[in-house]
Amino acid sequence: MENIANAPVPRHVGFIMDGNGRWAKKRNKPRTFGHKKGADVIEEIVSDCFGRGVEAVSLYAFSTENWSRPKEEIDEIFSLLKKFLKKYSGKLIKEKIRLIISGDTERLTGGLKEECLLRVKETSGFTGHTLNIAINYGGRAEIVRAANALKGKSGEITEEDISGALYTAGLPDPDLIVRTSGEQRLSNFLLWQSAYAELYFTDTLWPDFKKDELTKAFLWYAERRRRFGGI
Ligand code: IPE
Ligand code: IPE
Ligand code: MG
Fold first, then answer.
1. How far is the CA of 179 from the centre of ligand 1 (A)?
2. Is the separation of the CB atoms in 129 and 95 below 8 Å?
3. Which ligand has the minimum distance to the alpha carbon of residue 25?
4. pLDDT in tens, 153-168
5. What domains are defined for the chain?
6. What's the pLDDT tens digit per position in 11-59?
7. Is 6 among the residues known to form the active site?
8. Within 10 A of 51 (CB to CB), how many other CB atoms are there?
9. Strand pairing partners for 207?
């Protein structure tokens, strides 16, 4: 296997953190138990990405479609995200990581909205690493929002205009999207930004996705020949 130290590292990696429910089901536990375990692995993966030289990490935490789940499950996911942000906030400041939230925070209950706004504000001046958490996020809703924001603009709307009106404005497009749990779809994640992303799918469930799994994904990425339409 190639030496990871010399391999090209993606500038921006997106994670579709899927499989928490099935992880819990395999253990005869409630789905919320899986979400708890899933939240526990986030910090290590994000820190490891930044440690390897990744500039931006995007995490898909809650989709616009996830509102169709039972209220108790939604409340638990929000509570876990709030706890994660609170716990990680010291590190965000210490390591000068800018936090951005993709998605409409208005509907986030249980103090999650306030926690998001606070941590975004605290880290807004940082320019090194960016952690982007997608909560109440959908790629289509994001593109519609951008289109509405550009409505009054005079002249033709360009690709740069749209990119600049997305939540991820200013970030490089994701080079690599990782989806756990065996599903091979984007489920409305970073639709515009992922036009040329390499897509990595693993059967590993998100709560089992540890550093060695990340190494595998990065080695796979390093072997891709990215042609961007060329030959
Ligand atoms: C991903 O795990 C977490 C969220 C969507 C919030 P799931 O809850 O979708 O787990 P599975 O797919 O049912 O196993
Ligand atoms: C995608 O997972 C959303 C997140 C990981 C937050 P889902 O479990 O909601 O996706 P589908 O329903 O299997 O496409
Ligand atoms: Mg799922």
1. 11
2. yes
3. 1
4. 999 999 999 999 999 9
5. 12-222 (3.40.1180.10)
6. 999 999 999 999 999 999 999 999 999 999 999 999 999 999 999 999 9
7. no
8. 10
9. none
